[in-house]
From TrEMBL:
Biased composition annotated in UniProt, kind: Low complexity: 11-23, 38-49
Compositional bias of kind Basic and acidic residues: 1-10
Name of the gene this protein is made from: SYCE2
Alphabetical list of InterPro entries matching this protein: Syce2
Region: Disordered, residue numbers: 1-49
Listed name of the protein: Synaptonemal complex central element protein 2 isoform X3
Length: 185
């Protein structure tokens, strides 16, 4: 089903084109009646025979046509009333939809504001947690750095001690050899 959007459109009312059509129908009827009278060739003969025919038609069919005319008028009135009712109903529907749209916009706006507030509350909560974790991380990194410095000092000390231990036996061995040589001499 295609999507049709009726944003802020006024409902199209029935009967707007009907008034134009009624005006055209009246002109058509006048046009039909006009040439029939103007086709008469001799005015005196045409007038008398036309009067006789008209009197015969009026005498016989007068009540029938008046009844028919009143039925047509009633149908026109009823149709006009129905059209007016439909138009009123459409205007009410349009007003209802406009109110519904406005109400929905307000509710969506309120809901969006509440959602945004809640989102910022969650952001603040997460920021506190992240800040605490970053603080802990910074402290641990500082401690690791301090331990690393201590470890380097210990390693340097061990290295120095090892060198001293390695050098002394050689030195003592050289001294002992020297002493031993001195005794022999």
């Amino acid at each position: 089903m295609p999507h049709v959007e009726f944003k802020d459109q006024e409902p199209q009312l029935l009967g707007e084109n009907q008034e134009q059509q009624q005006g055209e129908d009246t002109r058509d009827e006048e046009a039909c009646q006009g040439p029939a009278r103007s086709q008469v060739s001799s005015p005196s003969v045409a007038t008398s025979s036309a009067n006789r025919q008209l009197m015969m038609l009026e005498g016989k069919s007068g009540p029938y046509f008046s009844s028919l005319d009143s039925s047509i008028d009633m149908l026109k009135k009823r149709a006009q009333e129905l059209i007016e009712n439909i138009n009123e109903s459409r205007q009410k529907d349009h007003a209802l939809m406009t109110n519904f749209r406005d109400s929905l916009k307000i509710k969506v706006s309120d809901l969006t504001e509440k959602l945004e507030e809640r989102m910022y509350q969650i952001y603040n909560h997460h920021n506190k947690i992240i800040q605490e974790k970053l603080q802990e991380f910074t402290q641990k990194m500082a401690k690791i750095s301090h331990l690393e410095t201590e470890l380097k000092q210990v390693c340097h000390t061990v290295e120095t001690v090892y060198k001293d231990l390695c050098v002394q036996p050689e030195a003592t061995t050289l001294e002992e050899e020297q002493i031993h040589k001195d005794r022999e001499c």
